[in-house]
Write a structure and sequence with these properties.
Layout: E1 2-6, H1 10-21, E2 27-31, H2 62-67, E3 70-73, E4 78-82, E5 87-90, E6 95-97, E7 100-103, E8 107-109, E9 122-124, H3 128-139, E10 143-147, H4 151-162, E11 166-171, H5 178-195, E12 199-202, E13 206-210, E14 217-220, E15 225-227, E16 230-233, E17 237-239, E18 250-251, E19 253-256, E20 267-269, E21 274-278, E22 282-284, H6 289-303, E23 315-320, E24 323-329, E25 336-342, E26 347-354, E27 357-364, H7 369-372, H8 374-378, H9 385-389
Helix pairs in contact: 1-6
The structure holds flavin-adenine dinucleotide (FAD).
Amino acid sequence: MDVVVVGGGLAGAAAVGALRAEGFDGCLILIGDETLPPYERPPLSKGYLRGEETEPHLVHPEPWYAEQDVDLRLGTRASRLVASERVVELEGGERVAFDAAILATGSRPRRPPIPGLELEGVFDLRVAGDADRIKAAAAGSSRAVLIGMGFIGAEVAASLRHLGLDVSVVEPFSVPLERVLGPILGGAIASLHRDHGVEMIFGDLAERFDGAGRFEALVTRAGRRIEGDLAILGVGVEPVTEIAGPEVEVGNGIVVDETLRTAAPGVFAIGDVALHDHPVFGPVRVEHFDKAIKQGEAVARNVLGADEPFADAMWFWSDQYDSEIQMSGYATAWDDMVVRGSIEERSFAAFLLQDGVLRSTVTMDWKLDARRSMPLIAAEARPERELLADPGLDLRTLHPPKDAT
Ligand code: FAD
């Protein structure tokens, strides 16, 4: 059997690792358009941006690919998938035949058409080179302007404050991460950044970047002019779906069923690009490090003949200053929130429930409960509020029996 993996990021690297670990000894090709071997992105907004880590953290050491007989094609872009012929076309014309193709093309930063986006000194952050450029610009700067305060914006704000820059952020919602965490928990993130001296301007939008060839100021919809030496855009990502071609369905991502299969025979999708029909949450596309690895492992088993739904409750973390935020599950709406600890003191676990079912857990400087919630979320459990609220209660005592999860 010949397997081709398109996308040399975390999910693609996890998939090739898992295929070999599962004993697959057929032809295995990993095609990636970056020049670095697959590496981990989380440090790019954290330790790597702050200069505490000087090398990108590789998923597998570089020699691993040759040792494992993985044909790693770096700096190579796949231009088209012809699913009916089971072929991936590469830029330059080479055609790579496959029995199974795993699409792991990830996501890219959104770039809304804001005038002045092309000015020198305006950045976004996805690849190691972006972090290098921001780091270099920050070194000679005293003031940064950030657009958007999702997880990337919040982490970059924290890292730039650590480097001694003044930081202003413009964010359309009323708190950071409001869409993901809601106003109350987002308020805890706002208070964290306020305590660290970040100027946050809520309810306003970037109208244009001003400067004579180089960024000088952001002008907002409300008419504010915020001067700075560099600007960083953090307004979310979009899935990189161009590879899919007309034969593979694309929505807000490449559409896959519970087992990570597209409707085209032998074609799978994983990681940030996959719009996955999750057995608990329905169709979701999430951008989590841990999920990218686990989907890589799951797809390897399914390529090799298993038929396992990917039912992981999904876990995410974010480091900002000395605080760690964790999140498990997935909820876009909830009608009840039960809290352990104190939101005001920024040490809590918040359990988000809909119709009594635990959908997601968000923690801040509160060890264990995000992960310990995962079996409850996966089982769509209805834990009693008093038990959830009791910080002395170990959530594992509420877990369903193993064979029921
Ligand atoms: P990607 O990492 O995007 O990899 C896809 C690769 O495919 C890229 O190299 C891309 O260039 C390549 N590619 C695309 N199209 C083609 C093509 N046609 N041909 C060849 N190659 C192609 N998650 C967390 O859980 N916690 C964190 O703290 C966290 N921090 C983050 C910080 C930053 C700065 C970023 C950017 C992300 C962070 N994430 C974090 C998210 C996490 O890193 C992603 O969810 C994860 O990298 C997704 O992996 P992926 O392999 O699906 O996609």
